[in-house]
Fold this protein.
Amino acid sequence: MRRSPWLPRLLLGAVALGLFAAVVSLSIGEGGPKKITISGGEQTQELIAGVPQAGPYLGSSDAPVTISVFTDLQCAGCDDYELQTVNPLIAEYARAGAARFEFRNFSLGETETTKAAYAATAAGEQDREWQYVTLFFHNQDQAPAHTVSDQFLEDIGNAIPDFDLNAWANARDSSTVADRVDADVKLAADLRLPAFGPSVVVSGPNGTKQLDNSPSKGDVEAAVTAVGGS
């Protein structure tokens, strides 16, 4: 069983009798009826609005380079990587049509898949996966009781403009979404991605570069140049 060594920022505190020493990811549970005010909507729209989306893809299908991001929505610390590294890359490459981004679910905790993985993938059925992912990471720390509940996932969906919440709820339980999440799990295993942080795979006309363990923006940019031939 894989275990992420990342120190969590979503620690609930010491548990009596030392039952748990640390929390490596957000819990999965029903939570309560409490709703939260979703933040980051303006930043998300500024980043993504107007950029073509199709399922897990963000950016023009004619882009010469594909940047596949393997990450875990429920990983404590992956939010910082997304907001501080991936988003600036999107602003630089996707908006200019220089690269197309692909989101891949990659569990860095103790389970192969997470509740949030199905939620984000279901949003991709409406070509809103990257909005969902970005808003989730903006609000990860605000999950009530540090739990990814159905209410929290719904609150994220409610913050996406022109989003059909009923269709999304149905898609979460569909075989189509399950197959996509399973395909992500299999691909991560085939690539032997180490569970020490997000990985990025950059593909282009000059080959493929696999970057593990939370590669920096500069590392990804260098890979884009190498495989894109520019």
The helical segments are 41-48, 78-94, 115-123, 129-139, 150-158, 165-172, 175-190, 217-228. Residues 1-33 have pLDDT under 50 and may be disordered. The CA atoms of residues 36 and 155 lie 7 Å apart. The first strand starts at residue 27 and ends at 28.
